[in-house]
Design a protein that fits this description.
Order of helices and strands: HEEEEEEEEEEEEHHEEEEEEHEHEEEE
Largest sheet: 16 strands, antiparallel, barrel
Strand order of the largest sheet: 5-7-8-11-12-13-14-15-16-17-18-19-20-21-22-23
Number of strands: 23
Strand content: over 45%
């Protein structure tokens, strides 16, 4: 009787271990094994096996940074005045995400992610350079929290699946691999994270499948909103919406193809194409009848994980047609418009590579415990105004190199402690931007 009561208590308290089988892009059934204790306090595995279709997981990051440069909004306009600026520190929760998935059976699954960015809602106060340093409330996206994913999927076979709902656009390395255990830096890679929406998520439809050595995905989604393009962030703001809905006057297509033919190596191509100019509530006047604002993006990225080395890299190129007309239109918008009213480049460029070695692979005791300790280095180049049309101001501080080095310590598979020192290298007339960051993060599933 004592044993039965103790077992019942453990069940209510939730002492379960679940062995989860994860089918990429979907959720499959999980087998639950219940642990109970006998009269001697030893674990006895209950032979009864139950099926659980609910999957719970997520990821999160907590970060502290010390920036050894000025954060004044005029630091690029009057760089000489801020050459010897004092350092400043920041605490941040960049991303905290809760994942819920359910397997309805017969190939039907559901997945959802609720994301809290920077520890709060998606509104913030910023110092606006274009308005003489005024404090302005910025709304990045309608609503108080971000629904990063919500989709329903029908799986016919591994080679063919259809997903519809709010889904991630896997263009570029970071959008496809954005969990904190999938990159070395304390923050996401700066180039793609600055210029592209990241994590990029839209409501649409996706067709995907995989074989032993290939995975493909093709998507149909709403176009971006050129009203919200900017000089430093290029198209990044165009994926959000200040309204309670996403305007769909224009549609866009995206794709991604991954190859795994070589052991430990993934090579990937991805791209995006869609018009952006009329994806807004206000219809432009006849002067802009021929303006389309077509966004074209091509990206290559790779990842190698074998022989105790991890090497990752990416090259991305983006082009925007009619960037001069979009710049003129946005800069003429009303002051209360959600547009940043900034110059927009016709072409952008992003490239980056990182390499790390697991030092603990040479220490038998640490290796036996499954612990890893990577020493790594990273290099990035990105320019959100790589090319500009005649008549569009080129802000050359938007282009920079960045070098970084640090550590990633994995005490267990799903938790990582990070430390990094980095320097943003700008053109001579500007001040370089060194910084130190530390953080702790997790990514995994709570149901096993």
């Amino acid at each position: 009787m004592k044993t039965l009561l103790l077992a019942a208590g453990l069940l209510v308290w939730g002492g379960t271990v679940q062995a989860m089988v994860k089918n990429e892009g979907s959720v499959s059934e999980t087998t639950t094994v219940v642990n109970v204790l006998d009269d001697n306090g030893k674990n006895v595995q209950d032979k009864s096996v139950k099926k659980s279709r609910l999957t719970i997981g997520g990821y999160g990051e907590a970060v502290y940074s010390r920036n050894f440069y000025s954060d004044n909004y005029l630091r690029y306009t009057n760089a000489g005045n801020y050459k010897n600026a004092k350092s400043h520190g920041r605490f941040d929760l960049p991303h905290v995400v809760i994942f819920l998935g359910y397997d309805f059976g017969k190939g039907w699954t559901m997945g959802s992610e609720i994301e809290f960015e920077h520890g709060g809602t998606e509104s913030a106060v910023e110092i606006e350079e274009e308005e003489g340093g005024e404090y302005e409330s910025e709304i990045e996206r309608g609503g108080e929290v971000a629904l990063e994913q919500f989709w329903i999927q029908k799986s016919f076979c591994p080679q063919f699946n259809i997903k519809a709902g709010h889904i991630v656009i896997p263009v570029g390395a970071t959008n496809a691999h954005h969990m904190p255990t999938e990159f070395f830096g304390v923050y996401r890679p700066e180039g793609e994270n600055t210029i592209f929406p990241c994590t990029w998520h839209e409501t649409g439809i996706s067709i995907w499948g995989k074989t032993a050595h290939w995975r493909y995905e093709a998507l149909l989604v709403p176009g971006l909103d050129s009203d919200r393009f900017g000089r430093q962030t290029w198209i990044a703001g165009g994926a959000g919406s200040p309204y309670e809905f996403k305007i769909g006057n224009s549609l866009a297509g995206a794709f991604r193809v991954d190859n795994f033919s070589i052991k430990g190596l993934r090579m990937s191509l991805s791209g995006y194409a869609g018009n952006s100019f009329r994806n807004t509530l206000i219809e432009p006047n006849a002067k802009y009848d021929d303006v389309k604002g077509t966004v074209l993006i091509g990206a290559f990225d790779f990842g190698y994980d074998d022989h105790n080395w991890i090497v990752r890299g990416n090259v991305d190129y983006g082009h925007l047609t009619d960037s001069y007309q979009i710049t003129q239109y946005n800069q003429g918008r009303r002051n209360d418009s959600p547009s940043p009213k900034q110059a927009v480049a016709s072409d952008v460029m992003v490239a980056g590579v990182e390499c790390g070695y697991d030092v603990f692979s040479q220490i038998a005791k640490a290796k036996k415990k499954g612990q890893k300790f990577y020493l790594y280095g990273r290099y990035d180049f990105y320019d959100s105004m790589f090319k500009t049309e005649a008549g569009v101001t080129d802000y050359d501080w938007c282009g920079r190199h960045r070098v970084a080095g640090g550590i990633n310590y994995y005490p267990i598979k799903d938790i990582v402690v990070k430390g990094e020192y980095s320097v943003g290298l700008l053109k001579k007339k500007y001040n370089n931007e060194p910084a130190f960051s530390i953080g702790i993060a997790y990514a995994g599933f709570f149901t096993r």
